[in-house]
Design goal:
By secondary structure, the protein is mostly helical. Helix content is 88%, strand content 0%. Keywords: Coiled coil.
């Protein structure tokens, strides 16, 4: 594996003559900690965004649940009204039949 570093001229001059491998070994734990901290921060942000999305979805689900429950209530009301209208229609038909019979009797006489 090849790693290439680009350093400012002043930094390069300050490192000249020093044991680069030793420097890398010394600083490696710090770099690992920094990377770990950055990864943890990234994951915290990701979790925060996912939690926000979850809250939004829960809100949408609640809205859908309320809509569905209202639709069910409306359906029950409409079915009850339909049944009432059927009964009323049946009663009206009976009355019309009775009136027809009465009229037929009157016309026959």
């Amino acid at each position: 594996m090849k790693i290439e570093l680009t350093l400012p001229r002043e930094k390069f001059k300050s490192l000249k003559g020093r044991d680069i491998n030793a420097l890398l070994r010394e600083n490696l734990p710090k770099v690992e900690e920094t990377l770990k901290a950055e990864r943890e921060e990234f994951l915290r942000e990701k979790i925060s965004k996912l939690e926000e999305k979850l809250r939004e979805m829960e809100g949408e689900i609640e809205e859908l649940r309320e809509f569905y429950e209202k639709a069910l209530r409306d359906k029950e009301l409409m079915m009850a009204e339909r049944d009432r209208l059927r009964k009323e229609n049946e009663e009206l038909r009976k009355r019309v039949e009775e009136k027809k019979k009465e009229l037929e009797k009157v016309h026959r006489s």
